[in-house]
UniProtKB/TrEMBL annotation, chains A, B, C, D:
<dbReference type="InterPro" id="IPR009381">
    <property type="entry name" value="Trehalose_catabolism_ThuA_prok"/>
</dbReference>
<dbReference type="Pfam" id="PF06283">
    <property type="entry name" value="ThuA"/>
</dbReference>
<dbReference type="InterPro" id="IPR029062">
    <property type="entry name" value="Class_I_gatase-like"/>
</dbReference>
<feature type="domain" description="ThuA-like">
    <location>
        <begin position="2"/>
        <end position="218"/>
    </location>
</feature>
<protein>
    <submittedName>
        <fullName>Trehalose utilization protein ThuA</fullName>
    </submittedName>
</protein>
<dbReference type="InterPro" id="IPR029010">
    <property type="entry name" value="ThuA-like"/>
</dbReference>
Length: 240, 240, 240, 240
């Protein structure tokens, strides 16, 4: 399984707090976590690379794409967002992290505003497993905690998840659907909430395990080689 | 719409705290709440009445049944539980409240253990609306609070809800799927979490509105007159 | 409830078969069917009208939009498709008919290719009700037939429906998910398969009843006045 | 993965047509099919064996149970049906075949009547894949045919499937949801329609592949060692 971790990679260049936590970039920390969990074909891609990190060839060679973006969603070209969505429908897995909820790619695949309520004060988040037998929860305890995280609150404006795996409890008073699985076309999409850039979330062992689980769950079972199109079927199978 | 509010009605007889809060019984408070919200054919039924309050005739004349039980689930006869489940599949609505999650009726309709984690210390519960356009959330603010409630925690061992309306946040650290809608046979089932007997939950105006909304949402669109059975279809509609 | 029936209205101008069947346009026949079924604020809109029939004002005054399009999906402006999708997420109901499965509006809301297999030879279609208690099936018999229709076959590349109401059987050998309900944002979307322009489908009494049921089911419960946006929540509800 | 194939095994003893087709029993043919598809810990169990083939020990050593029953559902003890359902909720996979739709086990897990319409005349059934990327459809062509099968028609009185994989088209005019996946407790349940005893369905290579896929899909990710129970959680995680 070939995994590409895409990161906006801007906060790390402009904010010393972020670069202090993630000297190799958020993508670097996520990639390390995947490697630690036994995945071995991990590469990274970032917004400021040529073709925004994801050429057609690169995308065609990706089985599961992990996406982290935040402030610069608008800079991702419409063409790239369309190409990623098309590749997901063709069968590529997609794991959308944290502020990626508002990326062009995720919004296009969901068809809804994908908005929510937020507060980035750094408060305790406790994640509860609601479906312990779900592959994304494999090896995860009944709950786990992040000492300081951004809060995301409901209503989260996404379609009803096909599979709900985690709920978050926030110290400041909110609850949230934090792990949401979707089946779209031949592909699978997993949204996982934690990961604000000013906290060391992607160094957390449990978080890394969840992301690795999500990547494995989203692995393609089938990738369509031909573009989707309406197809005329003649003659009929039975006399009409 | 003919609504029957069924209550175990035992705590009120043995625990002065409960009878102090609910001098007319939990069923009485729920019935009053429904009346306040414009429903006008409300009757009540309790465990110690003849036929456990629900004769075949009574059940046949009920469009939506509201169910509150707790300590004495086992005393409800298997025959009654089967009759209620059959009536729900035939089209009657069912609103299951709080500890009713562990009633014979609900477990039979869900097919799962319906267990959860709990703590009855009396802590703040804050309910968040995740689907503001759902009919059960009509007129309900983005969140509302109960100062003192029992905690229910995940995993809640029910089938994935067909429709999820509320999440609860508990002061003590848990989150929970608090408002779950199901479609079963011709009927609709809504599970709504709050309502521990030692707290005045069913006097709360917002709670009353939610229950009335749930009753309206669960109202039958169609009630099957004949028992369900496998039916042989002959001759075929097309030559075989 | 204010209903707007939108139609491409081109086949009727260029193909005498179609204008023979639908002298008042497909939109005219659909509107008549809604009126017959007791809805009374029905207007129509077509592609060649100013602003493609749907000005911002018009859209803001529509509670449920019915959509029929076919050959000229590409002519619908991206801006209009975006505005309709936004309005659906805000709460407007949307009933998408037949070849509207490939409209910009529907594809944008689904996030998937929405492709299928087809054959327009005019063969028997028999629709089976799989959820007889669903409001869209109210008053509809266990099955009903259209003597001559276009065939649509699986896989239909849409997200798993939140609610499945009808299956189609085609004489030529295919089966299809013909009545699919979705909840998106505050709005509801119903896709209903039949309605090829060269057959008199929208004169059929059962079809008309289904469409009227779908319009009623999709009626808004709540319309968001403000655009969706991420909202910062401060201060927290609880001390952090 | 340890698979147990349970069969009523009565038709084979009383009906020479059935024993002619299935000299090793329906369970024998299914077991052979699983072996052909690379599964290697397959055993069988039948109704007339001690403890109806499924002792507590046997059940505890089964990871996925395949179930075929028909005329003698009522002879399966309530205790065994309860034990199987409990084991499924604990994590065991269950693949229910054909007339098993009306078994005590399946009805108990679904909570609905599980009735349908039928006609056992031996007509063409064509199964269509609606979700080609679903693991149960792995390696299965867009459609496949059984020359002679019993017809099952809608409405099939089950809960809305969590995952729908196949639709059937019948020569005689019906359509049916033929491959339905459910998540219940820690377990997964797959219902697969074909398999009337007087036709050689379980000798068909595609059918065998689907059943093997379903067994793999239903394989446990986690089995609960302790019985499900409500659990008191004290002290709270946060001060209340």
């Amino acid at each position: 399984m070939r995994v590409t971790v895409w990161n906006e990679f801007r906060h790390e260049k402009s904010n010393p707090v972020v670069s202090g936590i993630y000297p190799d970039g958020i993508h670097g920390a996520i990639a390390t976590g995947l490697t630690e969990n036994g995945l071995d074909q991990i590469t990274t891609a970032t917004l400021d690379e040529p073709e925004q990190g994801l050429s057609a060839k690169r995308l065609a060679e990706t089985d599961v794409l992990v996406w982290w973006g935040h402030r610069h969603h608008d800079e991702v070209s419409d063409e790239l967002a369309a190409a990623v969505a098309e590749r997901v429908n063709a069968g590529m897995g997609l794991v959308v992290l944290h502020s990626g909820h508002f990326s062009k790619v995720f919004k296009r695949l969901m068809g809804t505003p994908c908005t929510l309520r937020w507060r980035a004060e750094g408060e305790l988040e406790r994640l509860w497993v609601v479906d312990p037998a779900h592959p994304v929860a494999a090896g995860i305890p009944p709950f786990f905690e992040l000492e300081r995280e951004e809060m995301y609150g409901e209503p989260f404006e996404v379609p009803p998840p096909d599979e709900l795996v985690f709920l978050s409890w926030f110290k400041g008073g909110e609850a949230f659907r934090s792990g949401c699985g979707y089946r779209r076309g031949r592909g699978r999409i997993f949204y996982f909430r934690p990961g604000h850039e000013t906290f060391p979330t992607y160094h957390d062992a449990t978080i890394r395990k969840v992301i690795a689980n999500a990547v494995r769950w989203a692995a393609p079972t089938l990738i369509e080689a031909e573009p989707f199109q309406n197809r005329r079927i003649m003659p009929p199978l039975e006399p009409i």
